């Protein structure tokens, strides 16, 4: 019997933007779309967060019932999911050795706590070094900026990466609210940034590294994760 892939999803725990009371958090679709894609394909999914406890959801990512992405609508009625998101484990309390992939959904909250987590940077680097799948979407690649290879070079150096673009950040009016512009930072770290049109689906895979540009990219990124998992299994 084939072993189910084990995927660890780690969300932000930042509920407000630093030095302000402006609410932020997880962009819900960027969690729910891959979460259900993974589950429906038979994967074993574990949901955790940076600090543990209730995952803060960006209020702008949830519309009145009936007006959301199908995965968000499904999550609204899913008691199991609501229980999970209401009380997550802190990711660095888990034994991560048995996981085949990590997934970092976005939301502006990630810009405030992902880059500050040395534990997350180490986990990303360890997974990458082991050839395990590392996936991130939209602002999720903020969790890649601190990750370093054994020789000290950034994990993203020389790798094709997609992330929320500077022009998208300008378009949503939050370029001055975030601590840094994500694609600018990734470029400085040596990443080869690739992008599609603003707010259109765009996801790419560079070996075991899978990244997506924006919320609309959450669906294609899930497909690329399975493609990478299948390739790793056959290696």
TrEMBL record:
Q: Which InterPro entries match?
A: Class_I_gatase-like (IPR029062), DJ-1/PfpI (IPR002818), Prot/Nucl_acid_deglycase (IPR050325)
The lineage, from the top, is: Bacteria, Pseudomonadati, Pseudomonadota, Alphaproteobacteria, Rhodobacterales
The protein depicted here goes by the name Glutamine amidotransferase
Keyword Transmembrane helix included in the entry's annotation: no
Ranges where the DJ-1/PfpI domain occurs? 30-224
SUPFAM superfamilies recorded: Class I glutamine amidotransferase-like
Q: Which GO terms describe its molecular function?
A: glyoxalase III activity; transferase activity
State the family named in the UniProt similarity comment for this chain.
Belongs to the peptidase C56 family. HSP31-like subfamily.
Q: Which UniProt keywords apply?
A: Glutamine amidotransferase, Lyase, Stress response, Transferase
Q: Name one GO cellular component term.
A: cytoplasm
Q: Which organism is it from?
A: Paracoccus salipaludis
A GO BP annotation: methylglyoxal catabolic process to D-lactate via S-lactoyl-glutathione
């Amino acid at each position: 019997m084939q072993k189910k892939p084990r995927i660890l999803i780690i969300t932000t725990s930042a509920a407000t933007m630093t030095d302000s009371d402006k609410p932020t958090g997880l962009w819900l679709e960027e969690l729910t779309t891959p979460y259900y894609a993974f589950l429906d394909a038979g994967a074993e999914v574990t949901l955790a967060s940076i600090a543990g406890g209730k995952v803060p959801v960006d209020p702008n990512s949830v519309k009145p019932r009936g007006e959301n992405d199908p995965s968000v609508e499904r999550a609204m009625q899913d008691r199991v999911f609501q229980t999970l998101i209401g009380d997550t484990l802190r990711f660095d309390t888990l034994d991560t050795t048995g996981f085949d992939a990590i997934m970092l959904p976005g939301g502006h909250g990630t810009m405030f706590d992902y880059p500050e987590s040395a534990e997350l940077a180490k986990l990303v680097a360890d997974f990458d070094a082991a050839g395990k799948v590392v996936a991130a979407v939209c602002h999720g690649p903020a969790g890649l900026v601190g990750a370093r290879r054994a020789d000290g070079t950034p994990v993203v150096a020389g790798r094709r990466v997609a992330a929320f673009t500077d022009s998208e950040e300008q378009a949503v009016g939050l370029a001055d609210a975030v601590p840094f512009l994500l694609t600018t930072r990734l470029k400085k770290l040596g990443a080869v940034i690739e992008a599609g049109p603003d707010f259109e689906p765009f996801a790419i895979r560079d070996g075991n590294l899978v990244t997506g540009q924006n919320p609309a990219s959450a669906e294609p990124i899930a497909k690329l994760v399975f493609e990478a998992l299948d390739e790793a299994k056959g290696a």
